[in-house]
Every structure is written in structure tokens, then in C-alpha cells.
Known about the structure:
There is one protein chain. By secondary structure, the chain is mostly helical. The chain has 2 domains: 2-56; 72-124. It is built from 6 helices and no strands. The longest helix is centred in the last third of the chain and has 62 residues, at 62-123. The model has no long low-confidence stretch (mean pLDDT 86).
Amino acid sequence: MRAITDAMVRLLIGAPLHSDGKLTIVSLAAEAGLRRNKLTHKHTGLKDLFYALAKAREPQPEAASAAARSRAAKQQQDLARVRAERDDLRTQLQLMARIVQVLEVENHQLKETRSQLEAQLASHASVADLNRHRH
């Protein structure tokens, strides 16, 4: 049992002597100088403890944390790009809303002008069309 706990410590601190240093039962067995089935069948409590400690281990391997930092940096860049696009679209939306408002006012004015012209034409409808009689 002492060999297993010593092997656990060496693996968890990243200083293996007899294995590849991975946080697996195979590496733990190799580090302790035992067969894997001793850990999986006889010393199940130590196996469970090792898995719990490995899972709770705060410092991640350097490659994993570098990849995580790289992903986080890319996500920050993507977020900044999406926010800039959102702000640009908001500005365009406000401009389009102003344009629609101006067009609605102009349309209303044209309708009023048309109504006035139609009223003027109706009042002059009693005037005979001289061009029609010439033919």
C-alpha cells in the first residue's frame, strides 16, 4: 500500500520515476511496480482516491492550459468582432429608421398634394375639353 501512495504522490506532483507520468491507473500501477489488476480489484479504495485526486488537481498540464488560453484568446477576439458587428448593425438600423420616417412624411405630403390637385380638377370639370371637339 505504501508503494501505491508514494506512486500517487509522484504522479500528482509530476515527478514520475517508473511510468509515463499520465494520471491513469496503468501509469499508477507501473509507477508502484504492480500489475494493474491489483489496483482495480484489490485496492479499489486507493484507485478511487487516485481518480478523485487526479480529477480535483488544479494545475493542468502546460499543454492543456496553453490550449485553453489559446481557445480563450480566440473566443475573446470572436466576441470583440461580434460586438463590433452588432454595434455597426445598430447604427445602420437607426439610419434606416430615420430614412423610413422621412419617407413616410414625404409620402403623407404627396398624398395631401394629390388630394388637393384632385379637388382642383374636380372643381374645373365643368370646363369643356376643346381638344375633344376638334377631331
